Amino acid sequence: MSRLSTVPSIRRAAGPAIALAAALGLAACGQGAETTGDAASDSARPETPKPQLPTEAEKVAMLASLPAPYNEGDLENGRRAFARCRSCHTITPSGPNMTGPNLYGVFGSAAGAREKYSYSHAMRTAGFTWDAETLDHWLQNPRSFLPGNKMSFAGLPDATDRRDIIAFLKVETGFKPQGG
Questions:
Q1: Nearest to residue 112, comparing CAs of 76, 82, 146?
Q2: Rounded to 5 degrees, what angle do the CA atoms 134, 165, 133 make?
């Protein structure tokens, strides 16, 4: 049998398998699923609201509302400097913990208290709350700031980079100034 004569038989055999795979794929992502036909019950299904990310204009306004010196931070430099932290930390709402904990909402939270993250004994018993000044000292040299913690980052000696990272984190991690 020639090679060309087997192609139609392969297409006939593969056709139903491809159609089944496509239908399963669409059903898995919620497309192609049948509705109940009752618009009221279909619309009553609760949808998980997606967090509204701030626009660039809102970020600039948030930066301007921060206390000095963070209100003069460079968000782009903060984003670039934070790239060193991204291998261990996420900063998104409900983001996963990695080697380090998710930092979304870090400001105002107790050290060593994030759920579902295994902290060192030193961090669990540190007894402080994260604020800009504490984070600045931490970023400068985590090992000397809190001996016995498990963070392997050597520190960030440049004060401008620390200021910019803190400003970036305040803008990107849901920080709400007191009274607002």
A1: 146
A2: 15
Give the per-residue pLDDT at 5. Answer: 45
- pLDDT value at 57 more than 60: yes
Output the six-digit token pair for 148. Answer: 């016995």
Band of residue 53 on the pLDDT scale cut at 50, 70, 90 = confident
Helix axis angle for 159-172 and 132-140, nearest 10°, is 130
pTM here is 0.70
Cβ within 8 Å of residue 163, ≥6 positions away: 69, 70, 72, 73, 136
**Phi-psi group of 126: left, alpha or beta (phi > 0 → left; psi -120 to 50 → alpha; rest → beta):** alpha
Category of 127 on φ-ψ map: left (φ > 0), alpha (ψ -120 to 50) or beta:
left
- Reply yes or no on whether the pLDDT at 81 is more than 50: yes
